[in-house]
Amino acid sequence: MKKWRRRVHLFLSIVELKTKAISVVTYGTAVVYVLYTQGALPPLLFVLMTAAVLFVDMGTTAFNNYFDFRSGVDVPEYSRDEDKVLMWEDISSFTALHIAVVLFFCAVLLGLIITVLVGIPVAVAGAASMAVGY
Q1: Sign of the C-alpha dihedral computed for residues 95, 5, 22 and 110 taken in this order
Q2: Is pLDDT above 60 for 87?
Q3: Dihedral sign, CA of 127, 46, 9, 17?
């Protein structure tokens, strides 16, 4: 149980879950706009989009942590930020990279399902957001 709890802690640290508030507010604003303009949002589509948005956001943060660590931005000599898990914990930077790739892959799978339900323009917007995130 203790090992599982540590893994969850490390995962949440790598994706910096506590920083997702701004993404949730932005996404929530978009959902309210859709509800206002369209009158409804199918529950399945809402769940799929919410998960895809979170996967892209968490994957982006994991990529950021990986690249900051690998490029030498996050090193103890220059940073005292306790939230930099790759710098302070005994964890491989490739774990962050692996997490980022898996999260982006999951977002792509959900994006494909959303595209089937809604149409190609959603795929284009999703691909653009992933490219910007990366």
Answers
A1: positive
A2: no
A3: positive
